[in-house]
Design brief:
The chain has 255 residues and is mainly alpha-helical. The protein folds into two domains: 68 residues; 158 residues, Lysozyme (Orthogonal Bundle). It is 60% helix and 2% strand. It contains ten helices and two strands; from the N terminus they run H-H-H-H-H-H-E-E-H-H-H-H. It has a two-stranded antiparallel ribbon with strand order 1-2. Helix 4 packs across helix 5, helix 5 packs across helix 6 and helix 6 crosses helix 10. It is globular and about 40 Å long.
Length: 255
């Protein structure tokens, strides 16, 4: 290896180690500011090709940090997989996809993508994927274009105007009608509700906007009943396809 390449690799390694060290030392905003200053000084002295590599690394690290803080994995609708062959999914997910497709008269391929998304995003937010899918079932019947009389939109019937900041991660409020973006925002809202409520039941009541009401219109019971059915299906046990409202829930607010 010629001396020039060795120097380039050494600078790149030093930069990476320095950045990693700063992230390990602290996670606050001042560390990020310090990182930017130090990184900028190094890049001014580096060759153009090294500077470009470093800039791309820094952008990636900052984006990962933002997603870690917000709990939202950003991305445009065009970046999402919109359909998956259910036969390519793990057995529990495939069973759910086929069962839900039959029950809600939805094509199994796009529904499989939603099942896979629930299984990927749910654990990151400490929510059972089957509970997420149960909420979607009761809220919209898996209609990504559903809208309630009070303005809740999409698969998880999120109040778009209330959570416009969360949709900024996905390109704006029209992302409410992108199934995956809506699910990611809805999952985050549901996670916040469960954390505030202390239990799944209390969280669901908050999610539907009935926190200050004695009666939630049977919403929590419907979601939990569907949740039990989906758990059975995923476990390979038979579950009755009991009727569940497929119309958008007329909630007062989504937390």
């Amino acid at each position: 290896m010629n001396p020039g390449k060795r120097i380039q690799q050494s600078i790149a390694t030093l930069t990476k180690n320095l950045v990693d060290g700063l992230f390990q030392i602290t996670h606050n905003g001042f560390a990020l500011l310090g990182l930017a200053v130090v990184f900028g000084a190094i890049m001014l002295a580096a060759k153009p090709e090294i500077r470009q590599i470093g800039e791309l690394q820094l952008i990636g690290w900052l984006q990962d940090r933002q997603e870690s803080l917000s709990g939202l994995v950003s991305g445009k609708a065009s970046d999402h997989v919109t359909a998956v062959n259910p036969k390519d999914l793990p057995k529990p997910q495939a069973a759910l996809a086929f069962w839900l497709a039959r029950k809600y008269n939805v094509a199994p391929e796009p529904l499989s993508a939603l099942v896979a998304e629930a299984y990927e995003t749910g654990p990151r937010n400490k929510i059972d994927p089957a509970l997420i899918l149960a909420v979607v079932a009761v809220e919209s019947g898996f209609n990504p274009f559903a809208q309630s009389p009070v303005g809740a939109q999409g698969l998880m019937q999120v109040m778009t105007h209330v959570h416009v900041d969360k949709y900024a991660h996905f390109g704006g409020k029209l992302a409410a009608f992108d199934p995956v973006s809506n699910m990611r925002v809805g999952i985050k809202v549901l996670q916040d509700c469960i954390a505030r409520g202390g239990t799944v039941e209390a969280g669901l009541k908050l999610y539907v906007g009935a926190a200050n009401l004695e009666d939630d219109g049977g919403y929590t019971a419907k979601v939990l009943a569907e949740y039990v059915r989906l758990q059975a299906v995923a476990a390979g046990r038979p579950a009755p396809a009991a009727a569940t409202a497929a119309n958008p829930v007329s909630s007062q607010s989504k937390a």
